[in-house]
Amino acid sequence: MAEASNLRTIDEAIVELLTSYQELNGAYVDELEKAPSPLILMQHVAQNRPFVVRGAAADWPALSLWSAEYLNTTLGESTVKVAVTPSGNADSAVTSSTDGETYFTKPLEIDERFDDFLSYIRQQEAGEISRADVKYSQARKT
Q1: Are 47 and 29 in contact (CB under 8 A)?
Q2: Are 87 and 134 in contact (CB under 8 A)?
């Protein structure tokens, strides 16, 4: 019985830690006008803070070349690593609607053909898929 109580206390402490972190750090993302210097980059990495460099990729050829059709033709049969999450919540504390408990969730990772993944994303964006599962690709499987 004491073991279950200790686990509950640990679970509560983890939830409190995650909640406090989110409250203190918020969802703010720094916007930079140019690529950061090594020092600024190191500071962001050390603080685990995201940033966006506005216009940094404006002259990249991929912007005009990489359409969904191009990627589907080029990568269609390739296998990609796809993360699947309920309602987009991954690596976060989520309260279960089934038992009311709070759990730390991680995405389910699957291997999927790129053309199947792209089709799902297109259907999801068009509102043709009613499931709450959110898929995103993290890295190409080699």
Answers
A1: no
A2: yes
Element (H, E) at 82: strand 79-86
Q: How far apart (Å, rounded) are the C-alpha atoms in residues 106 and 110?
A: 13
Identify the H or E element spanning 44: helix 38-46
pLDDT digit string, tens, across residues 11-21: 888 888 888 87
Question: With 0-12 CB in 10 A as exposed, 13-18 as middle and 19+ as buried, what is 114?
Answer: buried
Label the pairing between strands 102-105 and 51-53.
unpaired
As a 3-state breakdown, the chain gives helix, strand, coil percent values, each rounded to 5, of 40, 25, 35
The predicted-structure confidence for 35-50, as pLDDT tens digits, reads as follows 889 998 998 888 877 8
- Written as six digits, the tokens of 112 are 């999927």
